Predict the structure.
Amino acid sequence: MKVLVVIPARFGSSRFPGKPLAKLWGKPLIQTVYEAVSKSSSVNHVIVATDSEDIRQCVQGFHGEVVLTEPSARTGTDRVAEVTSHIPDEIIVNVQGDEILFDPRLLNDLIDSFLKSSAEMGTLRRPMTVLANFHNPNVVKVVIDNTGKALYFSRSAIPFHRENKSLESISWTHSIYEHIGIYIYRNKILQQFAARPTSMLEAAENLEQLRAIETGIAIQTWETKYPSIRIDTHDDLMEAEKIIPLIDMTLSK
């Protein structure tokens, strides 16, 4: 089955307006994301979905494929669903336009696992080892069951460790997972998901994946060892600039 990656990228981020066009390692952020995704051996096709003419022109400038979407889309998932509603590809991957993959094999971990499964929706997780991230609301946490299905996602510190509230060291347990905001769906379930109204939990946490859980769509998670970072603010961008020597972007299909 062909795998299509759609990268939703909107101009009007409340915390970082114009973020997809901000420069990272000498290139617009959206180009950095697009090129990293394109290096995955499991990906057949990549499209940027945006509501911005400036972003559209930027993507065309580096010869990427881009589609203009309605500005009224609630979330990135809804923008992805709009683009794929008339595309026959059955497997759709949603990579946020501010998710920097340091190794394209991260996507392979998600896609290859999904194709071997019967899951309808999936995502990735990583064991959390940095205490500051556990308490950072910009770092989303996920709690899973014994089969790897997501029980809940939150910006809060979950699970709560009653007997070890300080969590001076959390490397001893893999029960604390960081969620990596990359999703994979069968197109039919994606369209059903996008057609549903914003849920109570989704609105409370501002996490669109909670709409799926709250309406009965199971989200399977798989673990990856490969690093990535999310650019939420200008400070995140400045920190990312410092770690370019650690990044190997030479891997290719």
